[in-house]
Amino acid sequence: xxxxxxxxxxxxxxxxxxxxxxxxxxxxxxxxxxxxxxxxxxxxxxxxxxxxxxxxxxxxxxxxxxxxxxxxxxxxxxxxxxxxxxxxxxxxxxxxxxxxxxxxxxxxxxxxxxxxxxxxxxxxxxxxxxxxxxxxxxxxxxxxxxxxxxxxxxxxxxxxxxxxxxxxxxxxxxxxxxxxxxxxxxxxxxxxxxxxxxxxxxxxxxxxxxxxxxxxxxxxxxxxxxxxxxxxxxxxxxxxxxxxxxxxxxxxxxxxxxxxxxxxxxxxxxxxxxxxxxxxxxxxxxxxxxxxxxxxxxxxxxxxxxxxxxxxxxxxxxx
Length: 319
Known about the structure:
The two termini are 37 Å apart. The chain has helices at residues 147-154, 187-190, 198-205, 209-215; strands at 7-9, 33-38, 50-52, 58-65, 70-75, 80-86, 89-93, 100-104, 109-112, 118-122, 128-135, 144-145, 158-160, 166-168, 206-207, 221-225, 230-231, 236-242, 251-252, 257-263, 266-270, 273-277, 282-285, 290-295, 302-308. A hairpin with a 5-residue loop joins strand 13 (158-160) and strand 14 (166-168). It has four helices and 25 strands. It is globular. It folds into two domains: 7-206, Jelly Rolls, CATH 2.60.120.10; 210-308, Sandwich (Jelly Rolls). A seven-stranded mixed beta sheet has the order 1-23-20-25-18-16-17. It is 8% helix and 38% strand. By secondary structure, it is mainly beta.
């Protein structure tokens, strides 16, 4: 689908879903809000609102959580990348979430390895927001949950069918005829999930905001890509643009691009028209659209730019 102007989803217009996943009733995880901004996402609930359904080779979403709320241990078959828009977050991973962990501050980005169980929690004092990039148009076919997550959820009325859909006994729902519960991973299957340490993961998969600010002083910093700070080919590239590198960020997209401001206000101009992007906004630019970016006159300014690539929508622990 082609558009004559960028498609912009404003932060203030985001529509949350509180029943997106199997842990929606589990204490400690029952206050999560899930957002699907571009693409189909990975929600297990028909309640999930999709802002822009266009298939662009990757998905953009977000998670909002109050303090002490956590997202349960799960895995994906394709890339999952988060950057922190608001708050302070702890990410943890492994079969029981004890193999390793890292704390991310605002602006930091985490390119989570495919094939490990991961979870995250808001450890700040206020409502927090993390923005997500998921590989592939179908985001890897859904979420793979650690067995204990499925077992805990059933104690609170939620059952995940083998069809990938949730059924809520609190709403009087039951599994349809012919649909079995999602089977738990076997011990043999669980043994194939790596247990990397913090030292294995953080140097290769985490980039810090102020490091990116320094690297993007003259030209956009390559954050994720084959020759980037975080060297991978997840089906998309990620760049980081600042006030100093905005002039060299002028582009003819050539591919689908998504612009996501982190700090400051950014004016995007195309075909004689313009609009302003604010932190938390998401802007989809079509592959044939010429545009320029200009930050506000004063103050801190930073922005993530994501482009689709021809690479498979996955990444590995290999280095």
